[in-house]
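Record minuted for completeness.

…
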Amino acid sequence: MTLRTKKSKHASGIDSPNQSRQTQRIPMPHNSVFVLGPETNMQWLHGVRADKRPLAQKSEEEKSYGGERVSLTFRQIGTFTDESSKRIWGQGARSKDRKGAGFVRSADNAEVEAMVIAFGKENHQTGFDWQAEYGQGFDAINLVINTQPKLILCRNKVANLRVQLSLLEKKIAYDVEGRGEEEPETSNPARMGQARPKPWFHGLSNIEKPIFKDAGDEASEIEGDLAILFHLEKKHPYNPSPETEPQESSSAQTRNLTRAAQSNELLSAWQNLPFLSLDSKTRSPAPSERPSSSDNMVIGEFEKDLDAWEKYAKEDGQFIAGESWTLIDCAFWPVLNEIVHQWRGFRVQKYPCLSAYHERVLGRECVQRLLECEE
């Protein structure tokens, strides 16, 4: 075992000139134990180095077992993780108890860098303040700087907003790029004077889709807004609880699948709604634009779908699927936001609960940030 005093630094961070560093070498024969106390750890660096001396200079005991050694380090562990929920708590984490456990921030380079900086200070400062540097804790567990995932935007604003809402709400850092300078695609094709076939599989969009390129050991590429939402939910669930029963988790998954499909059915009905334009809230259709019986059927289906969401907003709490923000809010709110701003038939008196829900979400920090970027 080799012990060496740490470098002392001035307040400026520069090594003190002409400083003398002490070194101690402690023989560690077979079955020996070295106990390192906190005071020694504060003043000295320590390590077991490879013994590169010629065999002639070694004792018989040092040459036993072919000169090989096995070193075991015993530590009192005070930080814990739950592999299933990807949560972390304890002395070294930000949350000190399991009840308030946070997510492991494996893709958060800032968190990793802060931890590395703290380790560096501990290795160089004899007066290291453990509480000041480590007291708040870190939710990273690997000292690896990760490449950030990448989101490739498409020309459909609703699809982009769905994915970006999820990433920001989950606090996942990512790089973003577009697909050129083409005219942005709107969700309602009637503005462009063309019909769109009904999207496949419960309204899943068959228009241009965003692409998410994940990072890390399990890097993958996912295409399509809802596919990305479910991928992110699997890797970084919004509200996993260590106490959640399997039946509850299964029920939540079923609800998510059902309402995600319903949100796209609403989007499909909205895309096929006739006589809309960019100024549809104040514009009346010309006589030649009066709806036909088939148009009235489309409008009726759309209003029926929206009525179902008004019921959800009335019954389910602060958000569209309960008291907590979920994947469904990311899937539904961007559709609702476009309807609120562009459909002249949306009235607070008719849809009071959806109006209130829309305003609550509009006040969320991540939503404000995204909408500011669009302006």
User: Anything to note?
Assistant: Residues 274 and 291 are 8 Å apart (CA to CA). DSSP finds eleven helices and ten strands in the chain. Residues 10-14, 180-206, 241-247, 276-290 have pLDDT under 50 and may be disordered.
